[in-house]
Amino acid sequence: MVFRIIISTVLFCIAFAVYDIPAEYKDLLSQPAKDYYDKLSDLERNAILEVAQIYANTGDSGKVIQELKKKSPELGDKAEKLFNVFEKSFKSLGDEAREFAMKVFREASKMFVSVVSSGQKPTINEIRNKVAIGVKKYNALSETAKAEYKQQFPVFTSLFRSDKFQQMIDSAKN
């Protein structure tokens, strides 16, 4: 189960770069994510789409990185490194923080599979609503769980705590 969530998350992080990111949300991405997005070649974008489509259709997470390596060894290595980082991070979390992280990444995975399998991107309102739910769940965590999550996922934590996310939530209410 955890492996499946991690592989989905890795694919989501990589494949998100294949799709146009709405301009108003691009500045929510970390600089490394922006750099990654800008540096993908057409070959890498196509490899990601092919592997993502296989995953969306079959759910077979066991071969995802292997298939990606066949199509683009460098990109496969990047995905494998990202997978290892996420796996280590998940394992080091306490129960409450791990459960929260799994929920967040499970939602991201659902969105990813939906985008890849249907080709339809979520609407701005759908994104806003998901962000609002994520922030509410983050705020409900104990201080210990928040600290653990922040240590392992500082970029995501900064997003949950950012003014831009709060503005996004507020605009969803209006």
Characterization of this structure:
The protein has 174 residues and is mainly α. It has one domain. Helices cover 80% and strands 0% of the residues. It has eleven helices and no strands. It has helices at residues 2-15, 23-26, 31-39, 42-58, 64-71, 73-92, 95-118, 124-139, 143-152, 154-160, 163-173. The protein is globular, with a radius of gyration of 16 Å. The N and C termini lie far apart (37 Å). Mean pLDDT is 74; it is low at 1-8.
- Give the total of domains: 1
How many helix segments? 11
Distance between the termini: 37 Å
| Strand segment count | 0
**Approximate helicity band:** over 70%
Mean pLDDT: 74
Radius of gyration: 16 Å
Q: Ranges with pLDDT <50 over ≥5 residues?
A: 1-8
Strand fraction band?
under 5%
Taken from the alpha-carbon principal axes, the silhouette is globular
Structural class: mainly alpha
Largest sheet: none
Secondary-structure element order, N to C: HHHHHHHHHHH
Organism: Dictyocaulus viviparus (Bovine lungworm)
Protein name: Fatty-acid and retinol-binding protein 1
GO cellular component, one term: extracellular region
GO molecular function, one term: lipid binding
